[in-house]
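Risk register update: the risk of archive-format incompatibility is retired. Evidence:
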Amino acid sequence: MSRIRTLMAGAVLAAGMTLPFAGVALAQDQYNCDDFETQEEAQEVYDSDTSDPNDLDRDDDGVACETLPSGDGTSGSDGDGDGTQPPAEEDGDDQVEQVPAGGVETGGGPADYDLGLLLGGLVTLAFAGGTAVVVRRASQDS
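Archived output:
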């Protein structure tokens, strides 16, 4: 009976240690730029929480989803915050309407989320290992 109680206590504590990370997971990425029709709609969501948990402002210039079209019918900006587009190539080839600006965006968010989850997992694993040692020693003593 003592062994079952110890195992249950260890399981409850291990589960309890993971609860602080639930808020971090829930706070991430509720919206993406694809979820909006216009830049103004995205900007409204960004302005409601400028800590930008949705990563709508990738270049941190205060303008969300700069590549989305504007509500006034113009196309998105070139990413430098002034609302203008780069000029199209004028070499007679009509295939390219707009010259891309910037590089390919990678990653899913700040690295500190991953570090917190890694540390939480390591602590939980260490706790589970310690619990296993205590349970084994207790069973050997009886």
